[in-house]
């Protein structure tokens, strides 16, 4: 089974990004879904890796992947939670 990865940043001036990141991790923790947090602020190569894997040169955190498979961003994550399709979104089902 692949590892779920949430690309995030510990260094941001954006309250919106901070809030989105904490909501994603809070929901995953609440559902006991294991994931690895990847902090892109520690290394530019990680930011480039996140953008390349997402297929978007302007992608910003949080971005969610299952292994190398792109699941989506915050908006798609919230939509999946609301529609009760989180397992499918995270490619766990």
UniProtKB/TrEMBL annotation:
Cellular localization per UniProt: Cell projection, Ruffle membrane; Cytoplasm, Cytosol; Nucleus
Entry function: Could act as a modulator of glutaredoxin biological activity. May play a role in cytoskeleton organization.
Superkingdom assignment: Eukaryota
Species the sequence originates in: Malurus elegans
Gene3D superfamilies to which the protein is assigned, alphabetical: Glutaredoxin
GO cellular component: cytosol; nucleus; ruffle membrane
One Pfam family here: SH3BGR
Keywords: Acetylation, Cell membrane, Cell projection, Cytoplasm, Glycoprotein, Membrane, Nucleus
Protein family per UniProt: Belongs to the SH3BGR family.
InterPro entries: Glut_rich_SH3-bd (IPR006993), SH3BGR (IPR051033), Thioredoxin-like_sf (IPR036249)
Name of the protein: SH3 domain-binding glutamic acid-rich-like protein 3
Primary site of residence: membrane
């Amino acid at each position: 089974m692949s590892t779920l990865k949430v690309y995030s940043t510990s260094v941001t001036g954006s309250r919106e990004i901070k809030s989105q990141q904490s909501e994603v991790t809070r929901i995953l923790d609440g559902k006991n879904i294991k994931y690895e947090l990847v902090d892109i602020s520690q290394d530019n190569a990680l930011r480039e890796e996140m953008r390349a894997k997402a297929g978007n040169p302007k992608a910003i955190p949080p971005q969610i992947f299952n292994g190398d498979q792109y699941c989506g961003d915050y908006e798609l994550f919230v939509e999946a939670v609301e529609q009760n399709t989180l397992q499918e979104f995270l490619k766990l089902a």
